[in-house]
Structures are given as C-alpha cells and as structure tokens.
Design a protein that fits this description.
The complex is a heterodimer of chains A (about 1000) and B (about 50). By secondary structure, chain A is α+β, with helices and mostly antiparallel strands. Chain A contains 13 helices and 65 strands. In chain A, a hairpin with a 4-residue loop joins β21 and β22. The longest helix of chain A has about 55 residues, at about 320-370. Chain A is elongated and about 175 Å long. Chain B contains one helix and no strands. Chain B has about 50 residues and is an all-alpha fold. The radius of gyration of chain B is 20 Å and the shape is rod-shaped. Chain B starts with 5 loop residues before the first helix and ends in a 5-residue tail after the last helix. Classes of the chains: A alpha+beta (about 1000), B mainly alpha (about 50). The interface between A and B is large, with 40 and 36 residues.
Amino acid sequence: MGQVIAGLYEIRQKLDSGGFGVVYLGWHLRLKKNIVLKADKRSLNIRAEKLQREVNMLKNLSHMYIPQVYDYVQENGIAYTVMDFIDGESLKKILEKGKVSSQPQVIKWACQLLEALCYLHSRPPYGILHGDIKPANIMLRSNGDICLIDYNIALALGEDGAVKEGSSRGYASPEHYGIEFVSEDSSVVGGWSSYIRGKRRKRRGEEQRDEEKTLMDDAETVADTNVSSSDRSTTSRQRKVVLDVRSDIYSLGATLYHLLSGECPAQDAREVEVLKEDVCSLAVSEIIQKAMNPDPAMRYQSAEEMLKDFWQIHKRDKRTIRYKRYMVAMSMVVSVSFLIGGSCSFVGLKQIERRKEALALAEYSANALAEGNVVGAVELALQAIPIKKSIFEAEVTAEAQKALTDALEVYDLADGFKAWDMIELPSAPFKVVASPEGSCFAVVYAYEVAVFRMEDGQGIVRLPVQNSALSDVVFVSETQIVYTGEQGVTAYDLEEKKVLWTGEVATTLTVSGNRRIVAAINRDEDHVMIYQVSDGKKVMERSLDGMHLSVAVNDTFADPENDIFALNEDGSILAISFSNGGMRLLVLENPWDDIIILEESDYVHFEGGFCGKYFAFAANKGGEAVFQIVDAHEAILLGVYDSKDELLLQADERGFYLAEGNLLIHFDSVTLEQMELAFTGSANIKGFSVGKDYVLVGTDEKQFCFFDRGAHLSSSESCTENCDFVVLTDEYAVIGNRSEPFLRMLKLENHKEAQLLEYNAHYAHEEARISQDGEMAMLFDYQGFCIYRMSGELVTQVELPDKEQIYDQQFVKGEGDSWLEVIWYDGMVRRYSARDGGLLSEEVGEAPSKDLYEEFYTSKYRITSPLHGTPEVYSLETGKLVAMLEQDSYLTYVTEEGNYLITEYISAEGKRYGLVLDEKFQTLAYLPNLCDVKDGMLVFDYEAGNLRQSRLYSLSELIEMGENYIENNRRENGRE
Amino acid sequence: MFGLSSSEMLFYGGIGMMVVCAVLAVVCVVLFVVAGRKLKRKLEEEYGKPQR
C-alpha cells in the first residue's frame, strides 16, 4: 500500500510533475475509486488560508467538462487537492503522436471547452480563470468528449481581475507576459486594461503587489519579453497587467490553433500566422484569429461570444449566407410576382364586371329610348360611361358611347318630332286630349283627371272624377276644362286653379265647336243635360225617350270612345249613337226636327263629328264598316261608303279625316275633296291625330309614324304596345296606350342651323355628294343627276342615257375637281363634271363583271364590299381578315377620320345610313341619312330637300352634352 | 390581341402570372430543398453537426 493521505486517499502512482507541483494517481479508500491528488507546490510559498479559499471555491464546481474537486487536505506541510480521475488521454499526447485532429472534432472540443469556460467564468462572485489552457490540460475521454483539467494556476477573479500566476509558452496570452498590446484602430483601446489599471491604482495595496511579484517569480514558463514595434498595427507596453477571461480565450484559441495545424503557435501573439484554408475553413480560422488577437479588446470579450460563433458556424458560412440570400431573393421575386399577378387579375376582374354593367346599362338606355324616355336613356348611357377614372373602371365601351349618341340624337338633323320626355301616371290612361292651341293636355285615368303643360311636362292640376272609365274631360278654352267630377259636371279654371261651376252627375261630355255649350250624359241614363260654358247654367235637359249610350254593366274598363256624342259648331245639334245601334242628330231647340240616321242597327262602334254643316260618321261591326256624310242642315245624305276594314273618323273645322286600313284621307270641309294624308304600308291605322304640318298615326304593329303635309313619312318609332292615344299639336305629340301607366312626349325639333343646302324635295335621287372644292352638290341615281350650288341655285339637271344598262356610279373627288363616273355594262365609262354636269370623258373599256364588287383602302386596311355578302376588312400589313362589317347592308363608301372609320351603307330597304367605327371596328355612332363626309364634316341628306352637316363629336363632348341635357331637364322640371 | 379586351388581358394575364409564380415557387422549393440538403451535408462534413 502506498502513502495514505488524511487516512482516506492512497497515493498509488505519480502521474506528472512541474512547477505547479506533483500530480498523483490516488485511490479513494472509502469510495473505492481512482482519484487524482495534486500536491500544490505553492503551498510552500503562499498562505494556507489562501490555498484553502481557492480549493473551497473549486470544490463547488460541477460541470460535465470539468473534473470534480472533492477535498483539500494538508499532510506533512504539503497541500493536496483531491479531484476526479479522468480516464483518457491528453490532447498533448495525441499531438505528440503526430495526429492532427479533424476540423469537426476540433470544433466539437472547442464548444465543449467554451461551455466549460462559460461555466468557470460565470462563477460568483467574479468568475474563475483557468489560466493555463493548453493541450496538455485537456483530457480526451473514451466517449470522445473532453475534460478541462489542471487548476494549478486557476484563480478566482477579483473585482479587478486576476494577477498573473503562470503560463505556457505559445498558449499564454500576451498579458501573461505582462505585455499589453493595444490596437491603434481598436475602438476599445484602454477598455479592459485602462479599467483594470485605474481600479488597481485605487484599490490595490502594497501587500497584494508583493504577492504578485512572488507569483511572477514562481511561474516557470514565463519568459522575459520586451517587445516594441512601432511599425505594427499594435503597440506593446511591458508592464504588470492583470488577467481576465480574454486570456483564457487567447489560450483556447492557441490550443485550437495547435490542434488544427499540429504546430504550436508563436509565443509572440503578433507573429502567429493565420491558418490557411488548407488547414481549416475560413470561418474557423477567423474565429481562432479573433480569439488570438494580441489586443484583448479585439478578441472575443467572453467565452459565450466565442461559443456563439462556433454554434453559428454553419449559419455564418458564406455558402449558407449565399444560399439564404438566394432563397430570400427568389421568395421575394416569386411572392411579389404572385401578388402583382393577383392584383392584375383582381383589377381585370373588376374591370370586366364594370364592363358588363356598362353593357347592361347601354342596353337599358336603348330600351328607355325605344320607350321614349330620353332623359332616362341619357342618364343610363352616362352611367355606362365611367366619368371618374379609377383603376377598376374599364375602358369606355363602344356600346355605351353609341347609347349616349343615340339618346342625344346628335346626328339626327332631320326636322321632326323627337322623343323628349315621359310622364308617369298612377294608372293607365282612359283618355288623352290636348287643349285647342296645344299648350297643355289632359289625361283621364282611374279616377282622376290630370292636366300637364306641354312645354315642360309639368303637372298643372289633378282632380277627382267619377269612378268610371267613361269619365270625360273637354277643353272649353286654353285655360278652362269641363270634366265629369265627383260632384257632377265641373268647370275648372287652370290658371286660377278653382272650380267655376258644378252641374249634375255625368260621365260623358262633349263641347260645341264654338266652345260655348257643353252636353253631358250620365252612363246609361236617357236624358242629356246642356250647359252654358260661361256660367254653368243648365240651359236644357233633353230626353232620349228611353234610349241610352252603349254602356257595359261594369264600366270600369269600358271604352269611352265607343259612341258618338258630339255637338256641332254652335251647339244646336247633338249627334248621338245608342246602345241599339241607332244614331240620331238631335236638334236641341226643336225635337221635331231631329234627324234619325239609323233607327236601329247591329253596329257596335261609332265614330264621327261635325264640320260646318256636315256631319260624318263611321260605324263598325265585325269585319264590316260604313262611312256616311250627311248635310245636317238640309238633312241630306251626301254619301255612303262601305268597307271591309275598320274605319276611324275624326272631324274638325278643317274637314273630316277617315282612316281605312293603312290609309288616312282628308275630306275638305267645303268641297269634300279627298286628299291622302298617310299611308302605313302593311300596318293598319289604329289611331291618328292631325296637326298643322304633320300627321301622327299609330299602327297595329306597335309603331307610331309622323307624316308631313305631303304624306311623306317623316319618322317612325317603335313602342312596346299599340298606340291607343296619339295626340298631336303644332310642336308636341303625346302618345300612350291603355296598358301602360305612362305617356311619351315628343317635341318638334328643327335643325336649320345645320343647313348646308336646300334643294327641290321632289327630285328623286339615291345619293348626294359634295364636290372637292365644296362649292357644288350633286344629287344622282341611275336615272340622272342634278347639280346645285351650295347657295341653293340649280346649275343643271341631266338624264343619263341607256339607264337600264348602267352598271355602277362612282362620285370621284380628284384634286381640284370632282366628277361622276358612270359605268355601263358594255364597258362604256362616262365622266360628268360636278361643276356644270358637262361630259368630261367618254371611253369604252372592258365590260365589268356582273357582280358589283368594290374595294376601299384606308391607311391600314383593305375593305371589300360585295353586292351580296358581308363587307370584310383585311389588314394591309398581314393580308389577314381582321373584321366583318354590317351583314345585311351594302357598303358604299369608307372614310378614314383620325382613329375612326366612317362607313356608309344602303340597307336592304334602301335606307342610307352610316356608322362610326373605332379601331376595333365597333360601332360608336349610328348616322341616319349620311350621304357624304367632307373635310371631317358629316353631310346628311333628308327627303324634305335638305343637306345638313354636323361635325364628329368626341366622347368628352358627348358626355358634356349629356350632362347638360340632364341638368337642363332637371332644372326645367324642378326635380332638384 | 387574341381578340381580348385590355380588361380580359389583365384578368387572364394576372391569372397566368399567378400560375407561373405558383409553378416557379414549387420548382424553387424543390431546388432549394435539394441545394439545402447538399449544403447541409457539406457543412457537416466540414464543421461537423451543428453544436446547437
């Protein structure tokens, strides 16, 4: 048995010895395990209390990579520190064997050592320095982990750091040698050192300085060093310095350096060569370089800091950084692109939705216009055009622009009645009647009579009437009406808005031609009341001897216009038809003079009235009708006319108006001479109203048409129902039906300001063109042509020879001159001057093809126009078909105006019109009666003998016009 | 172009762009996963497994 220390530890083997003392392998007699006994050489020189204090502190250490200190004993004047025996091999021995450790292994050991150092440096109160970290003091356990051993110079750090105890050459930091390196570029120059120095000056006593000196002397491995270099980046001062954690970091760096390179680093910190990439990775080399920086301030300031760098060595690697940068960059690119795509898609979707809304609004606008609701049509068209441009707004659709153009009718320069306003009623009307001079009109509906002003559609008054569809109203003057009021026949002043007088209850009224006498009858009663208009005095009550008007039992839906109930001019004769089909002219003053026209008949519908001394009526029954004219004064039947068509008849001071099927005829009031007023073709006339210059006709094809005094169709429009009520005055027209609760109002418009030329309206022609110099207008067709000066003077009228053999005509605008080129089937081509109609040339060429085929060229397109086929547009650049134009019309001309194409057509019905097309060949505007385009001006040819012109309006102008229209309309109607 | 209005081009172009981005994202993920694994293997060879 070897020497037993303190009766507990048996010394078995000497392991190592040095300046610090001797290390023995011992045996713990009680625990039966190997231990290490370290005989501290310092025990000879320093006080036992100090050693005891140090060992007590070490005893409290417990860390995976640090051996456990168990005990401290003194035996024979030698202090022994008892600690764990580490079964393994020191790294020094491994190095001595020439083994160079792999980098991953060194990194692993470095982390373990740093963890141990973190533990030591963080021990309270001020941490513990190892002080001598080197390969010899690092044991490699059998499990591959390391253990930091040998605390021979480990010292507790005081508030001011620790004094130098000893060092190992190459591993010891410059501070161990008392050298203080300060980097010139160090931002923390004087940091640790100056701090320590300052403190020491203040607190260190003489005693401690003596102790330091002793310790310095004890250190075997310290070499005297006197380094001074002014040409290096660090300057050195040799003086006594205290150690801190950065010394351990230096030593650890040096140890790692040795482990990696296999060479012990130079003793002078400044001469340590940087590890090259063939030795270790750049990242590791940088960590070691920083750990071994001569200037402590430039080193890691703590083990944690260095450990963190090792932990993050993967992340700090340039390849990892580059990889992450690529990843972030790609993520950003993809994400941003995705977001941009999403945004584009969202915006596009919104725009498509808005576009659909705009298309629907444009369609509603067209419907509103067809119903005569111009204000609504303009409002809807404006809504279809986005005014406040936002990113979500789609481009203005061609349909919306066309809807606005149509609603404003800017290119319809024909004089005539144009849709103007719409009046909504509480219910469908029973009767509509205009005032004598046309300044207002009255409408009867359930169960009121309302009077509206024509000029602004504004209501004047609404008055209750009898609860019967037979309820009636008549104008006795421009400002007075007589109506079948709730209390009885009532006269009302529209200006003063007061009742003038009231009579007995009645449902049907009539007023004499001179507006002085009113006759009234109540439903199916058999007596007629005659009132004086001026004061409401009942001047007469005439019995009908048991006969009465044909009134249904329930007259809620009865037709008030089914019977004749009419007074003559002076109110002396009353024409009345009865429910039994009879009809009489009652001479009010003398019943014995009554004229019985029909005693009794099976006619069910009567119409008629007086004109001067004549009385005319039309009586209808299923598929049969009769028309008769009677001299009421002489009681002579002047004429009878039977018809298979329904007959409609009206009378006024100008004569009688008889509609039979599709024909409306006027009988002169004096001569009874007949004159055609209107012809409606395939449609039958269902109602008409004759004004001063126009005739308004409603047909059974849900149309109403205006004819001028020459019986020319001026205009026609469609409506949703047949027009039961058509009322025409000089400037206004009112149209309604028994099904819909509104009335359409139309206003006569003329466009004299757009007049270009007035010519003889009787000259039949198909085309009209303006000469190149703008001084002449040529009207022509296959029969011939005539030329007008723009002043209106007829220059010449020419008939073309061999008309039946004409193949085609072209009006050519050459430089300075224009001519009409006429081509015959035999190849003859004649050119007629547009200036005087003279023959310019005559030549015979090749006979043209039988098929009329034309081509038009614009700057970008070639447009073909076959006689029987759809015009096609080809790109001049690619030759490809890019669009098809109007299907059922013949394209006659194409004009390019800026970005627009103006195409001119003749429809299958022979109607001329033009279209304004945008770049996508979408229709922006319909140009009725377009005949030419001259210097950017659109020229329109109207049958009334007018050439009128208009410029092409831009979208912004149309919008402005639309807004002004709405604004004016609101102002006029006081709707704001 | 292609008979589409600008709104439709914006809408369909946006959708196309999103689809391309999604495909690109998948490709990138695959590429980065592969490259990441390769890099991780290299780094582990060089530095050992991450210590933390």
